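Ticket #4471: structure output looks truncated?

Reporter: J.K.
Steps to reproduce: submitted the chain below (471 residues) through the standard prediction queue, then opened the result file.
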Amino acid sequence: MGESLVGAAYLVAGIVGWVVQPRYRAGPLLAGVGALWLLTKFGPAPPVIGSAWAAVLGHWLITFPTGRAETTVRRAGVGVVYAALVVAAIEPLAGLAVGGAAVVAVQVIRWRGSAAARRRVFSPVTLTGLVAVVTVLGLKPVAADPTAEALLQVAFGLVPAGYLAGLFHRRMRRGAVADLVVRLGDVQANGIEAELAATLRDPALRVGYWAGDRYVDLAGREVQVPEGGATRVDRAGERLAVLVHDPVLFEEPELIEAACAAAGLALWNERLAADLRLRIRQAREATEAERRRIERDLHDGVQQRLLSIPMTLSLAEASRDPAPLIREARHALLAVLGDLRALTQGIHPPVLTERGLAGAVAELAALSPVPVRVTARVGDLPPEVETVAYYVVAEGLANVSKHAGATEAVVRVVTAGGVLSVEIRDDGVGGADTTRGTGLRGLAERVAVCGGTFHVDDRAGTVVRAVLPCG
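Returned output as attached by the reporter:
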């Protein structure tokens, strides 16, 4: 009677799990354990079939909770468990020992894998499964003893009970996710990460917000996204954020999905704050870089020339023929004016004030050694947008001349739909990379500060494209 109750418990628990979690294979596997158990106990079966329920149970324990052998270690463990059936056909106790050792070894590896995995090992399911495996390995040799037989049945019966308790526990955790929506209404501006970490029970969880072309934290610092250890959060088809978490959480996709859905609006609000902080950070860095450039140019160029002028005039005063020295001082002064003019062009190009963006772009094209076709349709634009667009075209054409080996370039500067699109295309060799050098990377930062997007495509020639909001 006891053996039939144990088999029925596996069968019922497996069916319940199948209904509650249809995407997982854990329910069907556990139901298979129950069916094979009952078939073995109440009908004659060959030794291999008689041990099949134990192999399926080992498969279930190794691959819990999804029922899928998703890693090399788990696939190897499942393979050993089923290979133990062959050993069991010759020597049942040896086959049982091999399969049990594989189950224990995989669980130990999972336990050492991550902090979340350590918690999972002591969940009702895994704990009862390990108790059952150890009990069988210890008592099976003396299973003829009534006490040992009773303990074996109790140990086996704990597994489906632990599984049902685990299902109930997961329902409770999803209830905690529902409470997350309420808690987020009162959480501080930087508290979403802590709330998600507490809800998902992963203290190392980090949130990265999509800003421009990277994920950043609330301070604007870049967040590294490891492969196989993050979940992307989208909202209305738009990339919103990423959760960097323990890979073990992938075994509970419904929990992650529910948490992301619950925190979606709050993440959206924090993403706006993170994006603003990133732009402020980039603006500070760009301002500091510009300040250092001006300081360096003044020190290395203008200051040295200015110091030479008084010295030259002093020599002229003491000279019988001061005219050549005065001419030299005049030339030096004109050179200083040229340096100052070039320096101020780096701040705001005078040609923009004189001719506007369309005229400035036409002048850049005329000065380029590579033939350039220009399309420019622009209206009134904010000064900062004009300046950034001008530098995008200037740097793009400079790269065409220096590196592209092109025979022709095309520049399009067009305003439409409240944005200014700037595109420089050439038929050269390609190879542009925003991660190398400072020119394109500096442009990308300038464009980002204005709230725009910057992209370089070098698959066929090179295309530099920037989109800047005009509002």
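Triage note (M.O.): checked the attachment and the full token line is present. The chain has four domains: 2-173, 192-278, 282-345, 354-469.
Status: closed, working as intended.
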